[in-house]
Task: structure prediction
Amino acid sequence: MAEEKDQTGSSWDDLPLPDKYPEPHKENRVGLNGEAEEGASANPVEESTKDQSVKCSPNLLQMLKAAKSWRTAQGRDREEVSESETEETVAEARKTDMQIQFTDQKKDFNKRLTKTGRRSLSRSISQSSTDSYSSVCSDSSEDESSPRDKLQKNSKGLSDFCVKNIKQAEFGRREIEIAQQEMPALMVLRKRAGGEKPLAGAKVLGCTHITAQTAVLIETLSVLGAQCRWAACNIFSTQNAVAAALAEQGTSVFAWRGESEDDFWWCIDQCVGAEIWQPNMILDDGGDLTHWIYKKHPSLFKKLKGIVEESVTGIYRLYQLSKAGKLCVPAMNVNDSVTKQKFDNLYCCKESIVDGLKRTTDVMFGGKQVVVCGYGEVGKGCCAALKALGAVVYVTEVDPICALQACMDGFRVIKLSEVIRQVDLVITCTGNKNVVGREHLDRMKNGCIVCNMGHSSTEIELASLRTAELRWERVRPHVDHVIWPDGKRIVLLAEGRLLNLSCSTVPSLVLSITATTQALALIELYSAPEGRYKQDVYLLPKKMDEFVASLHLPTFDAHLTELSDEQAKYLGISKHGPFKPNYYRY
Amino acid sequence: LTNVFFCKCCAPFCSGSLQIQFANTEDKQEFSKFPTKAGRRSLSRSISQSSTDSYSSAASYTDSSDDETSPRDKAQVNTHGSSDFCVKNIKQAEFGRREIEIAEQDMSALISLRKRAQGEKPLAGAKIVGCTHITAQTAVLIETLVALGAQCRWTACNIYSTQNEVAAALAETGVPVFAWKGESEDDFWWCIDRCVNTEGWQANMILDDGGDLTHWVYKKYPSVFKKVRGIVEESVTGVHRLYQLSKAGKLCVPAMNVNDSVTKQKFDNLYCCRESILDGLKRTTDIMFGGKQVVVCGYGEVGKGCCTALKALGAIVCITEIDPICALQACMDGFRVVKLSEVIRQMDVVITCTGTVPHAVTFITSALIITVSSKHIRTSIKYASLRSPELTWERVRSQVDHIIWPDGKRVVLLAEGRLLNLSCSTVPTFVLSITATTQALALIELFNAPEGRYKQDVYLLPKKMDEYVASLHLPNFDAHLTELSDEQAKYMGLNKNGPFKPNYYR
Result:
């Protein structure tokens, strides 16, 4: 044990491989396959229980005047969504029905991309993939000619790529090496699975943010045996040097910072490269690549073994396809895996709320009165962080279960209007719109800070602040003073957009979780036996989720206890997991 | 008393629905058999925590020694002239009424449910036969059901847990109750039979805790099932039995599993254990926590609760865990994840809440050993290994044993390795209130559901009901729930009144 401890400290090269975790692509079959499990486990109940949770009628008696179900009330989207009510779960990986609410994104779903401006290109809103405030920046001003017109070759003579400047490869390589240090899980994965090449023969077509962290993912996939072609999912997020380093290494990358919309689709099309190369896996972030192939190269779908989609938007598009019966390959929803969700929301926001507020306002939290709107994962994180710094925290909530949790965690549950006069800080994280309205803003005290940690930029009713009598003053980047005629000032952060994306960084551990999840989802889909996954959208199997977590444990020098045979038998679970049923609430 | 209440649903592993392995196979074997004279063990099967009133501060005023004749042989009549009940002594009704009134103070959720639904009588026509612990809290539930229009007949699910005066008070108000403290096994089944089998009254709802009543009806009066609209089952064991029935295709009515509702699970495990770990330790050992090194085995709901409470008191806490996701959560919450053998030499307190068989205790030097959550008695701590001849046992006070090694080392073992929270601390009425409210709403839901909504299967409580249980308890905290505006509800695609989260929301 002591030996293992020493090793973990040094570097990822020496990391002891967690032997207790079998090769995911081999082992989890036993654990995941419904039939196999039923026979083997001493747990006959689980299967039937799985169904129960779905069968549960959400219907209610008249006394409560309740909604018929969660979904029927989906205002703008009624006709499509109501069909899904009858859906039942199947098989080992749970399908999920969409529970995410879309606002702007919804409208442009089915349309062919039009010139709606840049917004439609920066659709990817998955938090951890958004590298918005990266400390690593490459400026693009050095060269005005479009990379499309330049013929570049890497040192091996290949020219099947398109990046800003291949000569930056060396800088990019350094960036990637730094990122490797921060993503030990992928490095462990390389080392563990590298000998076996679980992705041998896989031809992965990717469309994600191209950053150093993604590069580590891409190179991991290569080490695992896959061939990759990559494009950017966002016209602004590409790190040119990293793209160059990837191209230099032989990966066909089509991306540079500051693409035009036309460039964007050109890159994707080049990436698909229909004549010379048949992809059999897709890794997408935002659904643009999937959409392009679906519209332009439908024949490619026949060869596909699966799609891995990361962003909320992309998943929503996949569900729509699936509902329309047009999804002809299995798709994996990695956004909703437990580990990723916890890190994207709870842990990430717990740190970034304090970070973002400090960076922008240098506020001191002790004794400040703070109201947090919403007590979901994000709200729980914010409240915990603020309470730890000595703030007096109030919570507003609509869901009685979450409200009761807030009570038991020692927070006062109030309505916003009750405390709005006395609070120093208002944080919204509801995912709803107009949570803080003009009537609230009017009653705030002088110097009150308003910011948004939620899902969209609609939570604060900004339109109502854009009136003639109010004066706006930009005091520093992301900080606006809104001045009332009587001289009262309100501090608005990031113009109501997400504070955690605009004013703080995403820790690389969170990006590492995301990348590892993506890699494992690709492996799972690629190596799944014929028939395990149908033409539908699946959640990542629990076993894989646990594997992602276990790959990150060495970072914390955490030593996982292993079940003895006797204990495993007593609990009726496999020694190697999955340890919890799918519906377990962590 | 404590001999009876040894089991508890183990938190980390059963918080969804049943995933419990009855590895001792004791329960398993017993399951499909008709209860035989297997001794008292088969009677103490009910293991749901919040229904277990193990260390009640409201102990019976009158000990059962005052009267040696069995209640079965006594003819008693209440003031209304009815004799359709069987309790220890109907004259204790007045004391019992006081107990019930005290309990009502703490169960405001049920009282407000009475008020809100009284006009509608959502249970009008319901004939409920119940088998639960008979305590003041249950009495509040029963009287709530009556207020909502139901007719009730009640019996005890545990031979020791009945509060005699409460049973008398219920009988006095006209609820046929068949229960007393210290029934024999024969009495136990006789009471259940009397409860079910009566002229001119046929039950159409069953509220069960442990599955004994369901089992009896299933074996003895299968015809009753034709009229039954649903079964509400509270305990893990009972739910397990129902799933077995369902699997065998023998479940011919819908059943509702209230044990696994979100609210109840959170309170049974996280919140309840967060408080009872401190309470239990203080009561038994008077330990001071600041700076003590504590290892908590398992980071499920129970483990999370224990860690939060101990950290808040300044203890240095580390965790052992087998599930990498839970281990990662522990890391992010700032607890060291270790293997027990690495730290065992320096620990002051060892708390197990895994539900699994333990590490050999012989490693332990001088520590407190505490079991908070386990499926079965003593499995979390390798109990048998301590009963060896070279070790001396010394009982220092009730629930506290010193185990003395030959070299003089002492280990303090609490509650003989049984569940600390059940043996050495109380279950707060608030938690019981959550349970009772959940049961009442499940009954209402099943009774009012239109034909065909529920098939012959085991269901979880609908999310909406779960939310309603929570919302009924919010006034206790003076919490003001925000209401969605129409516009916001539309934007979110939600109904203003809920449900607010999908069923699988974590």
